[in-house]
């Protein structure tokens, strides 16, 4: 008789749901690709990679039909090799809600120096913005990146508490920098942690306003918005002059169902059978890119992963 500790094999979604969301969004049904067609003359390992990275799965973004095809495929493979389902219903799936995007709420306002800017044309709250309002002094903080190696590193010394922080998109000193510090969500998290009232991001010339419907990251505690065109120019000048602004953001998160795939290989040793070794991985990816990818401007391109 074999003597081993049970293994739990879990292939999971790497994104956790946070915050209150509207009713689950129903994605349209999709036929999954045929493995035999995709994997003809391939080894078993190559066939798995070929299937899961195929364009037909659309980058396996959380909650999409492509991600569900990937989950079904993994569950079938677990069943084929004799693993038992370890989901909550005895099957292979652990179902839970995840954030699947956002939409504009009823009240979104940006006003400064007597000018009110209509939402949706040259400014928009980001999908992870808090739904609240703030009236405060604007403060310009270059790109909002802390550079301790630079002698003129001013951002850590700026008094941003309670103020509306205005920053440039990305890294102005290294435009190709795609590290965490250049990410807008990270900048907003840092600003919120330092007590800022809001964060306004001035997009690079020619950049499109972000697509709220595809923003799945968790909401932050302050208003966060992206500005472009003439609005960005006006707010930059207003921030350099220390003007007061009012920012009101309203974002409605949407949720959909995601599924972890969980299976177990039971052990037989009387002493070890109550212990568990967990082997895990994630099967979702970035879908069609956008914010959070290494090339956020390449929207609409399948990120096979």
UniProtKB/TrEMBL annotation:
<protein>
    <recommendedName>
        <fullName>Peptidase M28 domain-containing protein</fullName>
    </recommendedName>
</protein>
<dbReference type="InterPro" id="IPR046450">
    <property type="entry name" value="PA_dom_sf"/>
</dbReference>
């Amino acid at each position: 008789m074999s003597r081993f500790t049970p293994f739990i094999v879990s292939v999971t979604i790497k994104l956790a749901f946070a915050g209150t969301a509207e009713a689950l969004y129903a994605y349209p049904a999709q036929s999954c690709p045929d493995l035999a067609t995709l994997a003809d003359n391939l080894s078993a390992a190559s066939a798995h990679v070929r299937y899961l990275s195929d364009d037909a799965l659309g980058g396996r973004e959380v909650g999409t039909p492509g991600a569900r095809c990937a989950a079904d495929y993994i569950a079938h493979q677990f069943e084929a090799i004799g693993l038992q389902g370890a989901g909550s219903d005895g099957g292979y799936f652990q179902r839970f809600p995840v954030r699947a995007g956002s939409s504009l709420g009823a009240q979104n306002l940006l006003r400064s120096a007597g000018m009110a800017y209509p939402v949706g044309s040259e400014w928009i709250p980001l999908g992870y913005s808090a739904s609240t309002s703030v009236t405060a002094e604007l403060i310009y903080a270059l790109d909002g990146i802390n550079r301790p190696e630079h002698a003129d590193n001013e951002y850590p010394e700026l008094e941003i508490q309670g103020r509306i922080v205005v920053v440039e998109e990305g890294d102005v000193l290294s435009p190709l920098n795609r590290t965490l510090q250049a990410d807008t969500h990270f900048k907003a998290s840092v600003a919120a942690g330092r007590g800022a009232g809001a964060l306004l991001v001035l997009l690079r010339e020619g950049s499109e306003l972000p697509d709220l419907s595809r923003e799945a990251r968790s909401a932050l505690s302050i208003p966060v918005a992206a500005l472009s065109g003439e609005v960005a120019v006006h707010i930059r000048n207003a921030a350099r002059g220390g003007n007061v602004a009012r920012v009101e953001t309203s974002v409605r998160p949407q949720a959909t169902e995601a599924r972890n795939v969980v299976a177990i290989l039971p052990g037989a040793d009387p002493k070890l059978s109550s212990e568990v070794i967990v082997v895990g991985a994630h099967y979702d990816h970035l879908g069609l890119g956008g914010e959070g990818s290494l090339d956020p401007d390449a929207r609409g391109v399948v990120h096979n992963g």
